[in-house]
Design brief:
Number of helices: 4
Length: about 160
């Protein structure tokens, strides 16, 4: 399936919400990651990526948020691909595009909650236990991070929250 990846724009909001609802269902807002966003993480549409099909419909979304955990970091999520477009590598392509955008603007690191098996090909690894926390229950094996520059992970510590 052909697709185009672009930075998220206001006109994509409705399509992105539709994809997120189809991928996650009604429990989407119960996730601990959502607490980070509710507590003041700042949405970065210019670093977030949307996948459009040939008809111009949103079929995938990967969002980036400015946050802080001892130092400024980016928080990746949610990531979703329309169920009809899954299993073709689009999710990984969206993640890689977001990582590239964050690296290009000089960020230090990206933190996310997800499956290491899926995110490892995009450069993510498990954060050491106790270094970073979320405001709610989180499986430590799913707390992943990636440095965007040398030493980018060195000062990350504490609960992920709103940027200062």
């Amino acid at each position: 399936m052909a697709h185009t990846l672009i930075a998220e724009k206001p006109e994509h909001a409705e399509g992105a919400e539709r994809v997120l609802d189809r991928a996650f269902g009604p429990g989407r807002f119960a996730k601990t990651s959502e607490r980070v966003r509710e507590r003041g993480a700042v949405f970065e549409p210019g670093l977030s990526r949307i996948a459009l099909n040939d008809a111009g419909d949103v079929i995938g979304v990967c969002r980036i948020w400015r946050a802080e955990a001892g130092q400024p970091v980016y928080f990746l999520g949610p990531l979703a691909v329309d169920p009809a477009a899954q299993s073709g590598g689009l999710g990984l392509a969206l993640v890689q595009a977001c990582v590239g955008a964050c690296r290009a603007v000089g960020g230090s690191a990206i933190v996310l909650v997800g499956a290491e098996k899926f995110f490892a090909p995009a450069g993510f690894s498990r954060a050491p236990d106790g270094r970073v926390a979320l405001p709610g229950p989180t499986d430590p094996a799913r707390l992943l991070w990636q440095a965007l520059r040398p030493g980018g992970l060195d000062k990350i510590e504490g609960e992920l929250g709103a940027p200062r």
